[in-house]
Amino acid sequence: MSIARIGDIGAALFGVGTKTGIAEGLGVLALAADAATGRPQGAGLTAAVVAAEFSRRLGDEVATQKDAYHIALVRFIGCTVTGHETGMMGVGDDQGFAVATMLGDWADREDLKLHLDRFVALEAPEEERHAAFDGICDMLPTAAPDFTAAHCKQSYLLAKRLPISQAVLESVPYYYGRWDGKVLPYGGESLPYLQRLHRITEMAELVRRLENATRAKEVIAAKLGREVDPNLGEKFLEHADDIFKVASRSPEFENFIAAEPGERTLLTPKCRVTLAEIAADVTDNKALCFFSHSRRVAALSARAGQNAKMSKGDIENLRLSALVHDLGKCAINNRIWYKETDLEGSERLEMERHAFQTQFYLSHGNPFSQWVKVAASVQERADGSGYHRGIPLTDLAANILAVANEYDELTHGMPNRAPISATEAAAKLNAAGREKRFLSSAVSAVLQAAGHMVSESLGSIPFGLTRREAQVLSRLAKSETTAEIAEALGISPKTADHHIQNIYNKTNIRARPALALFALEHGIVMD
């Protein structure tokens, strides 16, 4: 089936230009977040159904039911912000680490270690795994406030850009709170109602998806008064079988859309852009080597579209397609992205799966299904030599995105490939144009646009940061050392350190995840 046909199916199901709800877009993001956190595909969708249905059975007002539905969806959009750190702790397995720490009891070392052993880095040597697990169990209880704060702040920054209630936003900082008040400095009735409800429904639905409904009920019963509110937990167990029946209806995505309580929250033009930007940020936070990639490619593609004399509407669709073009990377483990040597055959096949996953996610609903044709073709080539379908790429917009993506990857590098200069990248792309791997018109448009990539005014940089300090901040956010920053910017290590101290003093931030969030929130993307 062609990629256009798949996109058409999504459009037919949920409508283009009709009263589309934001639930469709949030559902697409939930599918990507499932993959990023090692959960079964669709677990985020059914978690929202379970939360809304439990709220309904409790007799909550429709507005609260909708909040329960929404909090389950925005819960994981901040999950990738610590993907680098969790992968490093989890023997390269960021996805296994995520699901293990969702299920494991952080206040019970043996239970936490049991879940780490079940999910994390299953292919790694046992001695290496268990040494890593001991380190995680030693670190996590004391590091929990900082670790969870990074997730929660990222989720909050992204969620506050959407038309969801203040009650949902106010519950975000308490995502990881426990009823017994252990590990984190809050618990009991001080936890927001939505958080206490969602803690139960999220845990129960994840266990049901991984095992079965009986085991899900056993897990919730065992956590009553410890991790979860005992009163709400007892009520959930009374209704669990009926709630799980509602969540088990198929087809899954359509059941999820139908389960939104009350009137559909409509997709506005502003929301359409916001969802694309959130998809870019979720993707680019997964690994240090992705940082700001999607936004850079989107900006470059839009300028190239202008050079190619595309219409304003087509340029905007190209820009939005570029923002979401790598969403499928959430499905690929960081052990692949961080490998410092060439990928083996099977590893390369795993890596190339990201293009298919992008197509799969985007095709599910609006606004993403409107961008799938261009976005999911980013690795195709005009001569048919690309992936994942290996078909000739003839569309100008798709060629521009493919060239812009290639230019950015060449000039920024990956762990197994050093970046090259802009001049070298231009030479490679010109050669690819001559060899008919890209449309020559697309190559020309992108290379012309690339000459203006860092034209930002000093007035747009917050907190009194200078242009040079903004450049240093972009690299600090990617965990580059002082020496690496100095080399990249052609300055001395002493001068680089001077800029770093100024950044610390002006922003009052010293941790890499927090600096990455600061740079993202304020749009500081420099080269």
The count of domains is 3
CATH architecture of the largest domain: Orthogonal Bundle
Task: Write down the CATH topology of the largest domain.
Answer: Hypothetical protein af1432
- Estimated helix fraction: 55-70%
Strand fraction equals under 5%
Q: What's the overall average pLDDT, rounded?
A: 91
Structural class: mainly alpha
Let me know the largest β-sheet. none
CATH class descriptor of the largest domain: Mainly Alpha
The separation of the N and C termini measures 40 Å
Question: Can you characterise this structure?
Answer:
It is a single chain. 51% of the residues are buried. The model is unreliable at 1-17 and 452-460 (pLDDT under 50). The longest helix has 34 residues, at 126-159. It is built from 26 helices and no strands. With 527 residues, it is mainly alpha-helical. Helix 7 packs across helix 8. It is 63% helix and 0% strand. The protein folds into three domains: 22-258, Hypothetical protein af1432 (Orthogonal Bundle); 269-450, Orthogonal Bundle (Hypothetical protein af1432), CATH 1.10.3210.10; 458-521, Winged helix-like DNA-binding domain superfamily/Winged helix DNA-binding domain (Arc Repressor Mutant, subunit A, Orthogonal Bundle), CATH 1.10.10.
